[in-house]
Each structure stands twice: as C-alpha cells, then as structure tokens.
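Typical record was shown:
=====
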Amino acid sequence: MKWVAALRSVVREDRGVSLIEAMIAVTILGIAAGGLMWGLLGFVVESGRVEQRSDANQVLIGFTEAVRVQAPYLPQTCPASPGETSTPYDPDDALLSAWGVELPDGWDASTIDVEAPVRYWDSDLGAFVPMPTGDSEDEVLQCARLLQGGLQQIAVRVTSPDSRATESMAIVKRVGS
C-alpha cells in the first residue's frame, strides 16, 4: 500500500508539472502566432502598396508617352499669367481615351497631375525656365525667344486613388513631335 501512495504522489506531481509545461507552451505559441500574424499583415499591406505603385507607373508611362508622341506641341500663352496653375496638357477622361491611355479600375484623369508651369528651354541660360509674366520689355523678348526654341519640359505626377503610391517623371517635347 505504501507503493500506491508513493505512486499517487508522483502522479499528482506529474499532473502539476504537465499543466505548467502546457501553459508555458501555449504562451510561447501564442506569442509566436501573434508575431507571425503581424508579419503576414505587413506583407499584405506592402503587397497592396506595390500593386498601387505598379499601376501608378503604368499610368505615368502611358500618359507621358501619349504626350510625347500623340499630343501636338501646345505652347502656353505668352506672356504667362502670374500664378498660372494650368497647362495645355492637363488631362481629362475624354483626352486620355482619345490618346489611348488605359487606366486601371478605379483610376481616372484626376490621378494625373501635369505640374504647372510647363518649362521652356532658354538657350541663353542653358536651362529650362518657366514662361515669364511679361512685366518688362526684356521678359517679353525672353518669352518670344522661349517659344522659338521649341523645347518644353513637362513634369507629370501620378498618384494612386488611395494616395498610397506616387510616381513622377519629366519629359522633353519639341516642336513637331
């Protein structure tokens, strides 16, 4: 009988140790599973951002190629209005359709921003400059010289509809292209 009592005390001790071990194991697995879930969530969020950047890049390339190849050379008014916020290349859905620019689902012309002002090549300065406002005789002459130069720098920014991705590019367009 003594051995039965000794066996019962051992069994009781094993039950307690097994319960503590099980609790520790469940706690460790819970912490590991929580970390794994955060990692998977980060992966899902980042993959959505990568998809948005890819779509933004596709729209950017499509639009800039359409401006470069299909759009006529469209000079701004000379002299420019002070604080001018529009450009001759501002897109709308009809224009994008006419130029064959395909937009992903949920995208529209408002996701494309042609930055104002369009800049013109100034051969005297060796740089692209905005159209002058024509406040002086020198600026009026510069304005005419810029239009004769025939090169425009057009900066385009595309932002995804959820604003998580932005891509930008500047292209140069010349008269006759």
